[in-house]
Amino acid sequence: MFIIKTNTETDSYIGGLPVVPKGTSLPKSESGIPLTFFFTVKLPKNHKFFGYTLSFFSATGEFDENLSIPEMITTELKNAIIPSGFLKQYQKLFKVFFFKSETATTLEEVSNIKLQHLDFSDQETGDVFGWAGTSPKWVLEDESPSSYEGQPISFLLQVKNEQTFEILDTAPPQKEINIFGGEKDRKKRNYFFFNENEVFFFGRPSEKPDDNVYIITQCE
Q1: How confident is the model at residue 179 (pLDDT cuts 50, 70, 90)?
Q2: What is the mean pLDDT of the chain?
Q3: What is the C-alpha radius of gyration for the chain, rounded to an integer number of angstroms?
Q4: How many Å apart are CA 111 and CA 15, to the nearest integer?
Q5: What angle do CA 140, 142, 144 make, to 5 degrees?
Q6: What SUPFAM superfamilies would the database entry show (predicted)?
Q7: Strands 154-159 and 183-185
Q8: Please, which of 24, 77, 127, 129 could form a disulfide with 143 given CB 3.0 to 4.6 Å?
Q9: For residue 181, what pLDDT is reported?
Q10: 81-82 and 147-148 as β-strands: parallel, antiparallel, unpaired?
Q11: Whole-model pTM?
Q12: Looking at the 3D structure of the chain, how many domains does it have?
């Protein structure tokens, strides 16, 4: 099923108030800078993981060329067994939570990204944000992982490439790479993550909501 942008109020949305597991505060990067809330998706009834929610945060106030996409494992990607602890350790400039929707809580720290609601559709109509079907729509070859810490890891959703996110008038500019490999203020008044690549989220239900999602990106 497609994830589409909608004007109807829903439980899935971009920007606005962050949704996190109960007892969780606004996440920060390794350097202690608060991460920006990008989106939350409450998986629908016909999804394998109905009853679960995925929320994603990423750095906009700092930039590291070596961390512009998620760190990759060093083995063959297809059917990979992800090393123990990797899914928590690789979240240096982003944070992803996958948790039971019944444990969700809303934080008061409003995102610098404008609110945009999301819905699900069997048809590829309107402004498509992503895909949450039974299997990924790969841009390149199949790179589905196999398991993590002895448990199977399955496809959750993907975000379509070339996504940019409208920001509030008061939002600071995003940091991005300069010609010397350092960082500069982005001139465009929007945010992005992972170089605007196609982004694939795989996960598993567990009691550790910040240690159960594997992210991989692809681009043509």
Answers
A1: confident
A2: 96
A3: 16
A4: 5
A5: 135
A6: Hypothetical protein YwqG (SSF103032)
A7: unpaired
A8: 77
A9: 80
A10: parallel
A11: 0.97
A12: 1
Cβ neighbours of 122 (radius 10 Å): 9
Would you say how long the chain is, in residues?
220
Spatial CB neighbours of 113, under 8 Å, sequence gap ≥ 6 = 14, 15, 16, 36, 37, 38, 165, 166, 167, 168, 171, 191
Biggest alpha carbon–alpha carbon distance for the chain: 48
Q: Residue 204, Cβ neighbours under 10 Å: how many?
A: 21
Alpha-carbon distances of 114 from 28, 41, 54, rounded to whole Å: 20, 16, 19
pLDDT value of position 125:
87
Range of the domain at 48: 2-218
At residue 215, what is the residue type?
A: I
Dihedral sign for Cα atoms in the order 73, 77, 83, 88:
positive
Q: Which residues is 57 bridged to in the sheet?
A: 37, 95
Q: Nearest CA to 117 among 3, 41, 10?
A: 10
